[in-house]
Design a protein that fits this description.
It contains 2 helices and 3 strands, in the order H-E-E-H-E. By secondary structure, it is an alpha+beta fold. The chain has a 3-stranded antiparallel β-sheet.
Length: 89
């Protein structure tokens, strides 16, 4: 059974976005961008690596560069203590 996105987040997966810059096959001087987004594990990024391996094997546009951003969505709550409390009647 496929895991839900929430289950994957509990296992440490976070939202990963990759900006893949690649050369057009017919016009190699022109660069094109492709945005990929999925849940992945930081710092090894197995899902992204699997996608880039697929790209290299099956697609004709050679990859020029990849810019990766990652954010863990489930983390300890940010807590700020209150310095004073005022009661109004």
């Amino acid at each position: 059974m496929a895991k839900t996105q929430f289950q994957r987040q509990l296992e440490g997966y976070g939202l990963t976005t990759a900006n893949i810059c690649y050369r057009l096959p017919d016009y190699p001087a022109i660069l094109q961008n492709y945005i990929w987004q999925d849940y992945d594990l930081h710092p090894h990024f197995p899902e992204l690596k699997r996608f880039l391996d697929f790209w290299s094997a099956k697609l004709e546009g050679p990859i020029h560069s990849v810019l990766v951003a990652h954010q863990g969505l489930i983390r300890p709550a940010e807590l700020r203590m209150v310095g004073s409390q005022f009661d109004l009647h």
